[in-house]
Amino acid sequence: MTRIFTLILALLLPLQLHAEDPQAFSYSAFSQIPILHEGRIKPLGSFARVLFKQINGHASPEHASAIQWLAHALFKPSEAMNERIFFVQSDELVKVLSLPVNKNRYYNFSEMAAAFADHQSLFETLASKNKKAFTPQEQKLSDLYNNVNNFADILGTFSLLVPLTDVDNQTLEYLGVNDHSPATYLYLLKFRREIRTKELITLTQKADHIETYTPTELGIARLTARITLLEKMDKNNSLLRIIPPYWEGTEEWLAPWSVINKDAGSPLSATLFADWQALAMAYQQDEKTEWQEKSQKLLMRGQTRPGVRPWALALEVFYNDFNFLNKVFITYIVALGLAIAGLLRRSSRLQVFAYRVMALGATLHCIMIVIRMAILMRPPVSTLYESMVFVSLIAIVFGLRLEWRIHRADGLIISSFVACLLLAAANVFAGNSDSLEVLVAVLNTNFWLATHVVCITTGYGSSLVAGTLAQLYLFKRAIGRVEERDLIALQRRIHLVALIALFFTSVGTMLGGIWADQSWGRFWGWDPKENGALWIVLWLIWLIHGRIAGQLGHLGFAVGMAFINIVVALAWVGVNLLNVGLHSYGFTDLAANSLFSFCAFELVFIAITTIIIRRQKTLSGYL
Amino acid sequence: MVLLVSGTISQRYIGLYQSQNLFLGNYIFWLGSVPLPGAYFTLGLIGVSLVVKLVLKSPWKKSRLGVIIAHSSILVLLVGALVTDLFRQEGYMILGPGDTESTVYDYHARELAILKNGKWLLSVPQSQLRQGNIISHPSLPFSLRINAYYPNSVLSPLTTSVSLAHGPAKNFSLNFAPLNSEDADNNSGAVFEVSGTLSQQDGVYIASEYLAEPSVILEKSDHYEIILRHEQRELPFSVHLIRFEKSDYPGTDMARSYKSQITVKEGTLAWDTSIEMNQPLRHLGYTFYQSSFLEKDGKQYTVLAVVKNIGALFPYIAIASLCTGLLLHLVGMLLTKARQ
User: Does B330 sit within 8 Å of A503, measured CB to CB?
Assistant: First the structure.
């Protein structure tokens, strides 16, 4: 029976909550078009998600996907300008920028641009300051500034392909343009010299006496003004790098305006410009078949460029759409619920069900990690986010192994609880950046990432399992009504997992030292992260030896082991608060608060359970 | 643990180098005027107890093999740390394209160097730059008496000139400054008195890392320069930089890799090789690492870390034995459990 339920759950997981409307535009090809962003070639769909999350805080707009939002902003910029997507992080910032008060603190581009124009000096001071010395408020302001600029880049990406509105046919004919092509900036570039000459002639003859200008001369003046304005606004537009390199010796993809700016035009860029123009037209005119055809064509052109892996693009879009992290998280929550229910109702069937659901979650979890490895072509862990995702899998693997035969609730509850906590933390710590990011030079080595990092994170995972098992031990003793035999078995397990943890953390730490020796010429440099790893190792050594030497009783050992969770949390993410050393990643207020709350909760839990146990008369001989 | 936690947290405030000196890199740790065991002392104690345990207390049985190997590996690591601490030399080398260099500069230690007609004559290590120390040398026609040495110093312009002051000391006074969190930002300085010159150049001089202009003494048509600099060591070979390559992730200024293409010249031999991030060059006991790079006047300079450490092999042995020992122990435990 439980097998059938698990199977049903497995079949339900791939279902999407929002089914695609067959009448609407299809974004499947469009979202796969390759773009160079943050040093990596990725599908447009990923780019849209990262950008929207940075600007808005959410993964996608309420009634649309991120890619739909991007298409709208690219091809209907005048409408997108008025959508309230910018999230201003604090009331104080609203005040500083004199923005109109609004409950949710969401503003549109026009409002933001106006506020920025009024407070230009604020940003000039900010630009002159060292980024490392920013206060949290300044950091938020700087992020907001970047977001608005990035969105401005999006709005203006294709402005060179849009027909200029206030140019009349008479002026065009006067310039010698008579092939009825749309008068876009790109097209008129060919006539730049004529426009300039005619403007100069008029200016020499009539200076700025506009009332004496003929209609065509007026047309030229208007055209010049329009072109100058466009260049002023968009000339440095460089965000959407969708034009692949064509000439030899460059790997750099360029945004459409940069192609013009850097004189990097090629037959390829000309074709792509025409395709993008047609795509924009299809979008604006609601031509669904045309849209589909053109986006497919653009995708095919992108796929064949050197350095682009078509399967990776498709895989990444699938990875994003499937939302692995959430699904894995939900599966573990279900498993946790089932295991607790099984414990309370003493139902072994529920526990078997919990075990199977957890195994299902673990399978999904593995698939998720393998996909990430395939996309990034590197071992599973290289960022804080990835370490959390990986360590949660380690916890689950421990749970599955511990309860391999008997499916007791203990291991199931512990491992699914730890995994859920870590996956939730991963969400907090991932911040606004792309979780599939490239690495700085020194970390860019697959050998050490595969050995040291995997080893040390496995150590973190096993330490957390040992620590949480110890907390379960304390909890069980605190509530009483538990057999001594069970407690002794639990103690043994804690000891075994602690030994495994010691193995991985000590070997991992020393491997880290050897990596440092290979890269910088020193085995040990007292870097905070190195010290953090050493804390864990020393803590484990102390407890294990204390237990063997008989200086720590069962309760003492369990209390000490329960503390390892705090030690791991501080060594793993806490050292980032110091913002020094080679291992430190960016850190947010939310992350710091979550860390402190976690430690405080653990401390209170350990203190309360220990006090209760110490007061108990029963089992006292067993202390 | 206490030392480790303090040493880590203090890095935020006083920087890695200072907190290492204060908490982690010494035998005695002074809490005010109370001496407490420092990190080295603690490590030594651990080492001694490990030896005692292994020799006197360990049951030398087959079943305990894993535990014994694991504990010995820690001993190997500690011995390695001691050897490294005693004999390790580390420094750096900065090379522009086309430069050839055989001198390594120490990261931290400074020296007072005296050059005669542009050629090196004598170096006084930092440890001897103590107040009252007198420096003389058979080939030096005068002697130096150290008045003060500051690991970090500031120069303040003088409004009135001081009698008997020479060189930069005529216009500047050298004063103590608190240490910076990055040792590279410290400008050490020394004030010294020269006596015994024939050409009436006796008096007070200063030398500071901050000064581009050295203190100069002209004696019998010989030209003596006295400078304070990072300690220098000569290599038995030289390194020539062909070119430095830094490649960024396309479209960003984030580095993907650094690489120095070099020629190593030793006597009449010369060969080309390269040094990359995570791929050092090892030659004659010296190891060269791609440490960093500088950009100056449109030219890119490579910064190579140069380390000579005979203790480098210890961690490798330690990790191999630790891994074996713990695995043996774990497998043994699991087997016993399975048997039960």
Answer: yes
Cβ pair A39:B12 closer than 8 A: no
Residue pair A237/A258 in contact by the 8 Å Cβ criterion: yes
Report DSSP state, residue A523: S
Residue A232 has pLDDT above 90, yes or no: no
pLDDT at A579 over 90: no
Give the ipTM. Answer: 0.75
CB contact under 8 A, B16 and A500: no
Chain A: closest CA distance from residue B210 (Å): 24
Beta partners for B293? B302
Smallest CA-to-CA distance from A45 within A434, A369, A428 is with A434
d(CA A248, CA B256): 20
Cα-Cα-Cα-Cα dihedral sign, residues A360, A361, A365, A368: positive
Distance CA B324, CA B336 (A): 18
DSSP secondary structure code for residue A139 in this structure: H
Torsion of CA A550, A554, A559, A560, to 10 degrees: 30
Q: Using CA coordinates, name the residue in chain B closest to A513.
A: B315
For B281, phi then psi, to 5°, come to: -105, 130
Q: Is A586 on the interface with B (CB under 8 A)?
A: no
Helices (H) and strands (E) in chain B, counts: 5, 18
Residue A539, CA atoms < 13 Å, CB-side half-sphere: 31
CB within 8 Å: B278 and A438: no
Most confident of B2-11, B157-166, B323-332: B323-332
B260 is written with which tokens? 């120095």
Residue A28: CB atoms within 10 A of its CB come to: 16
Spell out the residues 6+ positions from residue A27 whose beta carbon is closer than 8 angstroms to its own. Answer: A45, A65, A67, A68, A71, A295
Asked which of A68-72, A518-522, B185-189 is least confident by mean pLDDT, the reply is A518-522
Task: Look at A40 and B249 and tell me if their CB atoms are within 8 Å.
Answer: yes
Q: Are B129 and B140 contacting, i.e. CB atoms less than 8 angstroms apart? A: no
Contacts of A36 in chain B (CB under 8 A): 250-251
Q: Which of A448, A511, A526, A539 is the best residue to mutate to test the B interface, defined by the most B CB atoms within 10 Å of its own CB?
A: A526
Share of chain B above pLDDT 90, in %: 4
Question: Residue B316's closest chain A neighbor by CA?
Answer: A514
Mean pLDDT, residues A11-39: 78
Model pTM? Answer: 0.82
CA distance B273 to B239: 10
